[in-house]
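Something for you to look into today, if you have time. Just paste the record in under my message, thanks.
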Amino acid sequence: MDLKAGENDSVNKLEQVGYSLAQLAILLDTTEAALRMEIQRGGVNLPPRVKRGAKWFFPRRLVEQWLAELEARAVAASRPRRGPGRPRKVAPPVGN
């Protein structure tokens, strides 16, 4: 019985310094099932995580860094790009 109490204390401490899977799902506006599926696939699109027993925890500092990097990538990707191929020549004005 003492082991369960001690284990719950350590889980509560981890929840204070990080997000649980349910909390991260709310933060990212997705479902726990989608996050679990992503973890099973390798979790490339998720922030770094720690497994404690059967539960996943995501450290707050690392999640905040990951979100900042994700936002920076989104801003960089939103810049207009030229189309594929060689740049086209500008047509001379008609009527000269």
Summary: Residues 1 and 7 are 10 Å apart (CA to CA). Residues 2-75 form a domain with the Arc Repressor Mutant, subunit A fold (CATH 1.10.10). The helical segments are 2-17, 21-27, 32-40, 60-77. The chain is about 50% helix and 10% strand.
